[in-house]
Amino acid sequence: MMTAKDTVIKLNCGGILSDIEVEYYNRGAAAQAEISFKAGGREVVEWAEKNFESGSYQSGTYHFYTILFEIWQTQKKLWGIK
Asked: Which pairing describes strands 62-66 and 53-59: parallel, antiparallel, or unpaired?
């Protein structure tokens, strides 16, 4: 499963900046990735709760939801997902 740290692009400036400056940047990038990752996940959950329709079939602890394929494909494109 992907986590926020998987989305961080570390700075590698080839000696232009000091090690302290690079570490400072990388820590900030990691913190921003965590915030963005959580916000992105929340956006997906909120969108799903609003757009998925609850099915009438329930089995044990599972409850099934449906959505029109076209709506799902359109939203994935908006999120930049193939």
From this structure: antiparallel
Tokens for 23, please give them.
């570490």
Domain range holding 44?
Answer: 4-78
Q: pLDDT per residue over 26-74, tens digit each?
A: 788 888 778 777 778 888 888 888 888 766 556 666 667 778 888 888 9
Contact 52/72 with Cβ under 8 angstroms?
A: no
Structural domain total, the chain: 1
What residues contact residue 27 under an 8 Å CB cut-off, 6+ apart?
none
* Distance separating alpha carbons of residues 57 and 55, to the nearest angstrom: 5
